[in-house]
């Protein structure tokens, strides 16, 4: 029998998920937040299972939290970091995944620089595949952890005004968050310089703004994004100094949002580029470290829910 609320074998993206499916992940994750604060964090429901973290791009938070999530649930966790210097990136991924698949893992958590390849991989292996970020496409567990952080801080998601600001064009975090937050009924605003706005943003049913102060007016949540310099093949911004002047979140600009507005950032932060350190470190306003905490709980929830749907039960 598959999981009562989530019947899919993989988690490849937020696209296509229903509000009930998203809420199922959040509800299970909520329970893990409390368990992770206890002295004994082991709940070995995945004893005997193997999780492989297959990362073709750098990661600190995501890889570590998947590792902790798997270990706290009693699974064996293997970390593989693969360089993408090879010209045939797609082939490298499939070859590596097929090789690993022959060793009978139960979960492969994969991060790769090319959008969409995680879907291809899921067709080739017979274990559960979890997308830990594919190019500029999706990062579903990031969106889930962001939603959990918002829900716990504000008590709800529906009806909130949530601004997502900065490098929308290159951000998988933004795409997954837009899809999730819209599905759960938030009012989403996208704010970016025109060179970094998401193309065809209107198809997501969001409002777009080209001025940070104007866009964050009356917002409950201000989510800043990292400038993805590694995905930029030309000059999208004049200079980092100028970018901070117009697009960096500081106290003056944040004053436009609601007085109790909270600030988020998926990390890693470029301090003084997209956010003033003074705001990032303000525990009254910033829930950036709560996002990191939620990351472990969400990844435990994803592993738990997908374990119900494994073929070899
Ligand atoms: N850590 C997030 C990601 O992997 C955000 C970022 O890198 O800017 O997409």
Architecture overview:
- The chain contains eleven helices and nine strands.
- With 313 residues, it is α/β, with parallel strands linked by helices.
- The chain is globular.
- The protein has a five-stranded parallel sheet. Strands 2-1-3-4 form a four-stranded parallel sheet, sandwiched between helices.
- It has helices spanning 19-36, 61-72, 89-101, 117-124, 140-154, 172-183, 212-216, 240-247, 251-254, 277-280, 288-307, and strands spanning 50-55, 76-81, 107-112, 128-134, 161-165, 187-191, 207-209, 221-224, 262-264.
- Aspartic acid binds at residues 133, 139, 172-173, 226, 228, 266-267.
- Residues 133, 139, 172-173, 226, 228, 266-267 line the site of aspartic acid (ASP).
Strand content: 5-15%
Radius of gyration: 19 Å
How far apart, in Å, are the first and last alpha carbons? 9 Å
Number of extended strands: 9
Shape: globular
Please give the largest β-sheet: 5 strands, parallel
Low-confidence stretches: none
Spatial strand arrangement across the major sheet: 7-6-5-8-9
Order of helices and strands: HEHEHEHEHEHEEHEHHEHH
The set of bound ligands, ions and cofactors reads: aspartic acid
Helix count equals 11
- Would you tell me the structural class of the helices and strands? alpha/beta
Average pLDDT number: 94
State the helicity in percent bands: 25-40%
Task: Give me the secondary-structure topology.
Elements: H1 19-36, E1 50-55, H2 61-72, E2 76-81, H3 89-101, E3 107-112, H4 117-124, E4 128-134, H5 140-154, E5 161-165, H6 172-183, E6 187-191, E7 207-209, H7 212-216, E8 221-224, H8 240-247, H9 251-254, E9 262-264, H10 277-280, H11 288-307
Parallel strand pairs: 1-2, 1-3, 3-4, 5-6, 5-8, 6-7, 8-9
Helix pairs in contact: 1-5, 1-11, 2-11, 3-4, 5-6, 5-11
Bound molecules: aspartic acid (ASP).
Residues 133, 139, 172-173, 226, 228, 266-267 line the site of aspartic acid.
